[in-house]
Structures are given as structure tokens and as C-alpha cells.
Specification:
Elements lengths: L7 H10 L4 H6 L2 H13 L3 H11 L7 H32 L8 E3 L1 H7 L12 E4 L5 H10 L2 E6 L3 E5 L6 E5 L5 E2 L8 H5 L1 E6 L1 H4 L4 E6 L1 H15 L7 H12 L7 H10 L3 H15 L7 H11 L8 E2 H11 L2 H12 L3 H7 L11 H28 L1
Helix pairs in contact: 1-3, 3-5, 4-5, 10-11, 10-12, 10-13, 11-13, 12-14, 13-14
Amino acid sequence: MSAPQRHPIRDQLAQIIADNADQTCQQLTPAQWHHLVRAAKGHGLLPLLYHRLQRAGNLSLLPSHLQLILRTGYYHTASRNTLLYRDLHDLLSAWSYTSIPPPVLIKGVVLAQTGYPQIALRPMNDIDLLVPSEHVLAALRVMQSINYRLFLVSHHLVLGSTHPPRTHVDLHWSLFYRDTQGDPPPLAWFWQQVQPFTLSAASSHASTCHAQQLSTTAHVLYLIAHLGIQHEGRHARLLWFYDLHLLLSQQQHPIDWDALLDRAATWGWSAMLADILTLTHQTFATTLPLWVLPALHRAAYTEDGVRRHTAIRVGGVIDVLRALSWSQRLVLLPTLLLPSPVYIRSRYPTRWPWLWPLAYPYCWADLAYDMVRAGSAKRRRVEASAR
């Protein structure tokens, strides 16, 4: 994984977010504040920066127009997340009338409630749900019964509500892309790490609803793999590292470090975990057990060379189709080949609306490129195993 380039503004932003930069705030010039606020927007940290500065009494140090940008970002996130949790409450309520096991909530929708002081501090673009592959179509029917439409079939299903403002739901039955090192790890261990989760009334402004979540240990491992495989560190936002920092720092549900390191060694992820945990520690002064990083580095030396985990999206689609029955594949195939125009317009915005149909050939070309990468990666693995 390539590390994010260190930059003074990025480092100052991280210090403020970590509540460790009161003196730094006093020394920043208006021009530096401008760059810092712009960086906060790019890293998804506008509401958290507003919260930190306001609580420390440092908001008045910023020019008034930058204060307005931060305040607007905070209240926009608060409004957006309130609507997302309302829609999640409605979804879980409809789910409760079926025989399908409650979905597992992952990423932002869990972290905003359990890790952050307020749900307004963690921006979210969508709701991520994980279900067993055998319940995919049943879950799809539940969502369609409350006016969600299927927009896209990829390594997960993308659905959108038909009422404005549109809420997107990513329906997963796998947690990982296939990558250039081979097939994704089996999900059996992660399903063993599932725990009850209660959507609080404070989050949804309604009665409590029940779902499931990953254990802290499993969620940490998932977030690290999400950073290291899917994003490869190239677009590593500070928000994702701060999510990880919060999980690593919480005391209520201790991390089983032995289990985490064992899984990393089994799947050849030790070097990746060492890199990302080191970056998190350097960025937010995250406290880690003293023995963890040396143990990961020792395990990394036993791995087969230096593994570069690069996501192959078409591999995820192949894994999706493998996990489903033929009847399920036939239901999803049309959307796999022709994603919803609503999704295409939102995924590939353009100043000239009449150009949006050209996004379809672009999608198909992108898929073909990924197929070539998948074939090349498989050929290299076969050649390496034959040596």
C-alpha cells in the first residue's frame, strides 16, 4: 500500500481533529486556515473540524466566510444523517416482519452512532448492509416493497429510494473485492463475529430497531482491508483513518489482538496491517499495544514476498455470481449489464446532460479492462505456483 503523502496542512488538520493543537490554531494565518478548511472538505472532516474548533473556543480565529463554510458543512451533515437514519429505521422496521435475519450494518452507519459524540460528525453517502448470499433476493424484495429501486449490480447491489432526497443503500453479501493476490478471504470467520446492534431512538427519531454489527476486532480488520485493498492508499481520506483510530481507542469492547494477527497471517495481510496501523498511529497518535507492530513485521517477513493487494472489481462481480443460484443470477443480469440511468447520471455527472448515455460504453470498457487485469493476475499466480 502506498502511503498518503505527508503534508503540513494535512498534519495540522489531523492534530486539530485529535484535539491536540490548541497552540497550532493560535498561530495559523487566514491563508493557512483557507487551505486547512479546503483539506477538511476533501477528507470528509468539515463537521468534525467545526465541532473541535467550536468546543475549544477557536472558531472565532477563522475568517467569517470560513466559519460559514464549516457551520454549513456541520448542519448539512446533521440534516443528511438524520434522514439516512430515518430511512434506515423504516427499512429495519419492514425487515422485522420477515423471516430474514437482521442485516449486519457496516462502516459509517455503525460508526456514526457508536464511535462519534454526535451522528452529525460522521458524513455518510449511503447505508451499507451485509446479508448472507442466500437471502439476497429476499432482502431485495423487502427493499422494493418500501419503494427502493435496483440501480446497479456490481460486487454488491446499489439501491435507491424513489422519494427525495434519495437514499442509497449498498447491499453486500461479501466484504471484499477479489484482488491481485487471489480470491478474497472466506466470510465464515466474519459471520462468527456478528453481534446485536440497536439503532437508538436518538439516531432515528423513532422507536428503537434491531440489526447486527461486526465485533470490534472484525470491524477493525475489515476497515484496514477496505483501506489497503479497495483504496490501495491512493485516495486515503483522513476520515477513514479517524474511523479506525476511534475503533482502536475505544475501551468498551476490547480488541482481540491475537485473533486479529492470526487472521492477518492466515490471509497474508500482515504487512498491510502493519502499514495502516503505523499510519494511523503517526496521524492521530493512536495507542497500540507495544508488541503488535513488531509481531506484524515479523509475520510479514514470512509472507511470500512483498504482496501488493490491488482490487479487481470484475473479480467481485464474478464472486457475486458464484455465490448466487441461477435464478438469482437471471434476476440480476439485466441490471448488471445496464445499470439504472438514475445511477449513471449520479455516478458520471456532466455539464452536458445529452452526453450521459456515453457513460455506458465507458462502464463496459472499464469492466473489460478489469477482466484483462484479472486474467493477468491469475496467470501470474499460476506461473508462480508452478515454479
